[in-house]
């Protein structure tokens, strides 16, 4: 079968749109969010009590901005190209808030069957979008950039570095969820960390691999604009 080519840029656009939808659907499930976005979600729940405009999407790109600054400090120099990853994070933040608007807000669905469907669909859509991101040369979010650059600096395996990063994110989220659920009566621990978090952890990796194999069967994600690819290489 002849595969469609030159889809590197299209993969990035679709990936940004779908990652926002996936995170929104998992959140609407009300069973907890993935460990990667959990710290930003917890910060959002607290700050929005004082600043109502402080959305989940806003919390996401601000936290990624802080992470990028930390990366510059660790690497010992500022790399302007990293700002492109932050730009991706900002776009993703607005897309995420846009999906919440389409879905009627960030509060979980009332019907249990809708919550279960939302969680399952969110996990699949998130995995599919990450598989798309893995196939584009355009800047990914700061989360992925941080892992890749730290692994490169210290000569470590990227997968193992990602595992350590995920464990650190989960630890921070667990501590944060315990604290805010104890301080605020209207926030439950399971609003942040729950069976949905476990499901994301268990199913994301195999689904990303499966989606990637299916994508590679029908499409080739080379650059439609090779000169742009050359300029954006880190």
Structural summary, described in words:
The protein is 72% helix and 0% strand. It is mainly α. It has one domain. Helix 1 crosses helix 4, helix 1 packs antiparallel against helix 5 and helix 2 runs parallel beside helix 7. The chain starts with 7 loop residues before the first helix and ends with a helix.
Structure characteristics:
single chain, mainly alpha, 0% strand, 234 residues
Précis, in short:
By secondary structure, the protein is mostly helical. The protein has one domain (8-218).
Contiguous uncertain segments of 5+ residues? none
| Structural domain tally | 1
Let me know the number of strands: 0
Question: What's the N-to-C terminus distance?
Answer: 34 Å
Task: Tell me the number of helical segments per DSSP (H or I, 4 or more residues long).
Answer: 10
β-strand amount: under 5%
The helix-and-strand class reads: mainly alpha
Order of helices and strands: HHHHHHHHHH
Percent helix: over 70%
Largest sheet: none
Mean pLDDT: 91
Tell me, what's the shape? globular
Q: What Rg, in angstroms, do the CA atoms define?
A: 18 Å
